Amino acid sequence: MTATRALTFLASPWSIAAGVIVWIAVAVISFISWRRSGYRTDIGCLEALRLVIVALATILLNQPEWVEEYRPDEKPAIAVLWDASNSMTTKDVVDPRETASEARTRQEAIGPLTKKSAWSPLRERFNVVLQPFAKPAPGRRTDIHAALVSTLDKTSGLTAVVLASDGDWNEGEPPVEAAVRLRLANIPVFGIPVGSRQRLPDVELLSLDAPTFGIVGKNVRIPFTIDSSLPREYMATVVLKASDGEEVTKDVRIAPQGRTSDSLLWKPKETGDFTVSLEIPKHDSEAVSDNNRLGAPVSIREEKLRVLLVESYPRWEYRYLRNALSRDAGVELSCLLFHPGLEKVGSGNKDYIKAFPTNLEELAPFDVVFLGDVGVEDGQLTEEQCRLLRGLVEFQASGLVFMPGWQGRQFSLLETPLEDVYPVVLDEGQPGGWGSRTPCRFELTASGERSLLTKLADAQESNAEVWDSLPGFQWYAPVTRAKAGTEVLCVHGDAVGDYGRLPLIVTRTYGAGKVLFMGTDGAWRWRKGVEDKYHYRFWGQVVRWMAYQRNMAKGETMRLYYTPDQPQLRKTITLKANVMEPTGEPLSKGEVVARIVAPSGNAQTIQFTPLGDEWGAFMGRFVSDEPGKHDVTLSCRETDASLDASFYVQGADKEPVGLPARPEVLEEISRVTRGRIVASNNLTEILNHFQNMPDPPPSVRRLQIWCHPATASLIVVLLGAFWVARKAVGLI
Description:
By secondary structure, this protein is an alpha+beta fold. It has five domains: 98 residues; 154 residues, Rossmann fold, CATH 3.40.50; 91 residues, Immunoglobulins (Immunoglobulin-like); 247 residues, 3-Layer(aba) Sandwich (Rossmann fold); 97 residues, Macroglobulin (MG2) domain (Immunoglobulin-like, Sandwich), CATH 2.60.40. A hairpin with a 5-residue loop joins strand 32 and strand 33. Helix 4 runs parallel beside helix 5.
């Protein structure tokens, strides 16, 4: 850094002449005054001080400044930033001068700009810095704001920025905020947009929402979503391939310029860890086919769900439900019948238990609990048992099914801790419910048409017809409305209350578990003409839906589950764990951690926090930056137990190929910074501009002496001294 220092004046001939005349006039007056005093020494000193003050005033009248100029010894810098993200591999750049030329990728179009030789004509005057940003890496996305700010902060002597990109930023602050900082620093940005504003003809498989695990011999529903930019609708045969060689195909009508959602059913025949992949055949007009395939792991296992069925009278719904569950090979059923008048409660065959579980250790193994027409009264449930049921749902992810009856005993549950769990509001004026001589019909809601619980037909398009053909019911519970936060799947076909159609099938999530309300006891009539087909299917789906999360991963003393059950990229995943002592009691306090390893190998440790002291429940949160399989090792220091599990994060790369470019982003940056937009094939224009650019002005530091506080202080001191001296010599 070279510095030049000088004292300058903002003077004019008139100000100089006026100052000289005033000083000479004052000098004459001072001399006359000194002579009249007989040339006294003290008067001479006083008049000399007067001349000094007047001389200082005349000098300040010409505005003196101390100027320091600093000129950098190093060359000014030009930063060339070029986008290296995956979106730059999109092949949509065509030279307008050659209409028959083949399209190039965006990366190839800016290739000459990324070479040092292209900027060699500027090396004599400038220090050219080439810097890529948004290089492909797991979890990394394009952040133009960070690239510009980092260049401004780290590049010494920055004069201008050349930015070559497709403008497709998807992370960080808006780039225009960085442009404002560059504008304040007087640094222009020369934008080089690349890529087509129009999306390429493409059919993309956006998501494959495979469940974490499935049951051998049971259909696994695998939803998927397809996005098409083609101008016309067409039929495509999608193919689902399992790692064991099994294939499932389905003809899908793909909508134009939009998204299509559908699903496939896969019925695994063996247990084990499988990988399923879905593929869409390449369309003749499609320009990008790399995004037509997705895969996901699915664990297929044997099933053994523990279900507790509690009822008072053995009504028909109870009898047929008990038969359905006891004949299900994947269910281990326990029944408890509070039959009034029986001497021995719980008598019966091997499915029956003698009493309701008395403590948490006995109740915790049950995945789903059915409560029929039972309540809190002598010989039935107690308030403490209701509290345990609530905790079982809230903290241990079990399911709870309410099936009220004409005795109205479930009204007493609303005075226990189960009141908050209950998904509907009951009409206290009609505790026995409503009966009808003629059968009433079910009617699915929009949510019910999409739900897996109410899917009774093999094909989704015929499901509504199946529900319309079901035999009706002749009794329904006294429901007024569903509570907030619930999902109504089915309503009464005719009955209407103050809040609309009366809900019959209502579900909700409570804590970690699921709750279902069945407002009629006529589902057993569905067997008419078809035997067990629809009745068994419905209750089998209910049991498995409720126990799904609870059985994601479990060991001898540990259980791990998470929500949502199909985690999405960059979304919060809530991890919950149940940890037991070796003796089977829930761990009240302890250090529970999970080590999560992403597909790239990056590991992160999550510390769990306890959810109360009674239930052995712990919770942690995790956000993934990478799609794909994540391996989890759950461990507890107090019990010295561990559990290995995994989950699959859904989501496509946030740097997809084939999306349209966003040149308007670079146009705004250049406009704000007073730069300009240059075509990628016009490098000569940029070189000529920089070569004709004048040298940057020196850094100037000015000290304005004429208005400096020290100068004002000096004048005040001199005037004070002059006044005191006049008094001292006897002139005042």
